[in-house]
Amino acid sequence: MPNLPIASPTPALRETLYSYLARLAAVWKTDVRELAFDIGAPFKKLLNQDPDALEALADWADLAPNVMDELLSWTGVRAGDVRMEFRDELFVSRAIRNPVMRGCPVCLREDASAVDGQAVSSMVMRGDWQYREVNLCVGHGHPLIQLWKSEALQDRFDIAARLLEIDESILSGALDRPRQEPSSYDLWLDQRLQSGSDQTCLRDQSVHAIAPLCRLLGQAVLNVKTSESDNTSNSVHTVGFNIAVQGNTATRAALDQIAATATKSSDEPGKIFGPLYNLLNRDYLNDPDFGLFREILRECVLDHWPRAAGEVVLGQTIPERRLHSLLTASKKTGIGPAALEHFLIEAGAFREDDKRPQGRKLFDAKKYDPLLTEIPTLVGPIAMRTAMGATRQELEALEEEELLIPRTKVAKVKNPWCISDGIAFVAELTACSSIPVDEGDKGWETLLFARRRREVSLVDLINGIRDQTLKAGQRAGVKGFHGVVVQISEVNSFAGPRPKAHVEVLDQEFGKMSAAEFGRLVGLRNNGVFMNLVETGYVNTRLVKNPRTGQLQHRMTLKDITEFHRRFVTLTTLVTETGQHRNTLKGILAAGRVTPFSPDGQDYGAVYLRADVTKLI
Question: Does residue 272 register a pLDDT over 60?
């Protein structure tokens, strides 16, 4: 008769219920099935964690409630169909239960050497070895290796039988692998599972979420497309952990760096982020433990990919679009990407030398939405002239003097004109042209004819009509701009005497040029707004008598002009200084919320403080 022990063995640190059951059977010189039968708790019921079976085992082995609870906490207790409670946290069952049983052969060999008798009676299977995100035995620096694999639970958890099959390999060191220094991740996870303590910023997040996220983030950073079921290398978890432990800002920065590798139109988030995106978008989509990281990744995706309002990204419907690509903008406007690109380059959406494919040429959707809305409404010069009632020469002259500005100067764009600009301009003039003029009345002429005849600018003529210095009429039977006429005699007076062959040059003491002329030069032509600056003291001038005409006029010296440019800018001077188109500059000022100089609500026209503009341009 074999010698039997006086008492049952004591459960070891981190030992699982089924490991203890195997050692208990070995000590009592039997196998687990026979022992379970003797206890009155069939092995199948113990595997299913039947409460009565567990109670029978505790009574038979004389295990105190707290000892039994510790065994179960390292084993994992079913908590619903797909969850298990493990070390006081909830995990998905497949993270703890796996056909592959892993372990540290050094631990098992040390267990065997500590006692006399059969080796398997003292070999302990630790509970942390079950968790798929554990890679290393921290105590020995030995990677966890596959000891056996079995789909059938009764075979998988017949620990003693399985260990007997490999005990010689364990004891001889045949299963040993090169040692590794435990990483920050290994030490963190080992401490969390052992005591639950955590001194990092991850303390309030579950191991169930953080450990796999470290692996997935590390895979994304290292561009390792390892599947979830693989036993990934320790370096992957460590790379991800070293980022996550720095907080959400560092995590977002790492995601941004990964997103920046998307250079092809086909580089969608699932391809760029790999399992990190795909699992958060599928397996962990409704898991609240992953909610924070889902939000961080979602924000990253929206800042790097052109997602439309109404699309669902990582489980959330997007309320508004943040980014357009050239392709999505083309689809929105119905304008071909090649034509649309000219507008967007000119408006500053992206650079002309941008070599990215059309699907990756991204720009701010909200900022450029007015432009995209307007572009489909633009027309060519023929439609513009028809809407305005203007001739080709008249439209060209209005463009030349910047009284009407096309939405783009790019010659390849065939439809640069906004009809509403032309209609509004004509409506303003015709409102001032209240005098009906017979078709055959020779005392009146068109504005373009007056411009050519007396070499006076359209700007001055139109400003004269606006401030009622010039009377304007409407030629009978002629609609639109071409029907606006002015009296020849008034134009002659307005333009002044024709210059002589040799014009007398004013002495420098009277200033370089008149204030009105300088105002027109910098683009402040309308309604005497530049003279408002002069009269309120914001621009320095000298009031002198012109020796040729005898009229008092405000004139500016070089010093006065320099002082104006030091303090103020206009769209005209900005175009000269920067080389950028007026529409681009308008967009920049609007985006930066820079408003014209207007102390006390006074209208000084489109003049801006240089200090306000310098920070943007």
Answer: yes
